[in-house]
């Protein structure tokens, strides 16, 4: 397994981090990303079956409250009538509706539910990815693509739970979702964006505002 490369920074330097009855996890020595060994990935069919179980809806006030952890700080930083992309919007787009209610325009993209790849060739004032990056098998490619279509001064808003340490990871419910295959630490984000002229703000334990300077 020593020939496995980190899916975020492509470094070949990594080692075993944790193992349970279903999967093995490794940690990159360079960017700290914790990742599932690819042989344990779900097939696309089984992955979508898991996503189909999600019951998120714009009518769910608890879900709106959860998303507001990103919506509120994003709104404070956006110009009126900004144009954005909700990347990985899922089967029940809600964040986009919340931002539209605030006067912004939001396009929807999701590899399974809104697979309009032409939207990834346009440019945006902001891009949101809520509970998305932990599902990415090629985070380097996807994040670079999103960064490339973000206008100067634009904002990338990310929500994902982050790794604390090995002891917390062992009892962390977040790792038990079989569609979750990569796990960032705060340093993972810092390492990835270090050469991209980016400013990273940690809004709370799982919400980041990343500005393209």
TrEMBL record:
This is tRNA 5-carboxymethoxyuridine methyltransferase. Keywords: Methyltransferase, Transferase. Gene3D superfamilies: Vaccinia Virus protein VP39. One of its GO terms (biological process) is methylation. Its EC number is 2.1.1.-. InterPro entries: SAM-dependent_MTases_sf. The keyword Methyltransferase applies. It is an enzyme of class 2 (transferase). It holds the Pfam family Methyltransf_23. It comes from the Bacteria. The keyword Transcription does not apply. One of its GO terms (molecular function) is methyltransferase activity.
């Amino acid at each position: 397994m020593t020939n496995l490369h980190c899916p975020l920074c492509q470094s070949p330097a990594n080692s075993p981090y944790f193992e349970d009855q279903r999967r093995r996890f490794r940690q990159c020595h360079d960017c700290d990303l914790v990742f599932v060994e690819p042989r344990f990935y779900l097939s696309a069919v089984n992955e979508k079956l898991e996503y189909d179980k999600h019951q998120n809806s714009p009518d769910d006030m608890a879900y709106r409250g959860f998303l507001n952890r990103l919506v509120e700080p994003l709104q404070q930083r956006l110009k009126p009538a900004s144009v954005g992309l909700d990347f990985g919007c899922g089967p029940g787009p809600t964040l986009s509706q919340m931002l539209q209610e605030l006067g912004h325009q939001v396009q929807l993209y999701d590899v399974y539910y809104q697979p309009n790849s032409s939207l990834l060739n346009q440019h945006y004032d902001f891009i949101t990815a809520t509970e998305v990056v932990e599902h990415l098998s090629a985070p380097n490619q996807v994040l670079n693509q999103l960064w490339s279509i973000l206008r100067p001064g634009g904002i990338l808003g990310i929500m994902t739970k982050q790794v604390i340490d090995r002891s917390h990871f062992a009892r962390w419910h977040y790792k038990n979702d079989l569609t979750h295959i990569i796990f960032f630490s705060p340093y993972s984000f810092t390492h990835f964006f270090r050469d991209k002229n980016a400013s990273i703000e940690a809004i709370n334990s799982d919400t980041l505002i990343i500005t393209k300077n």
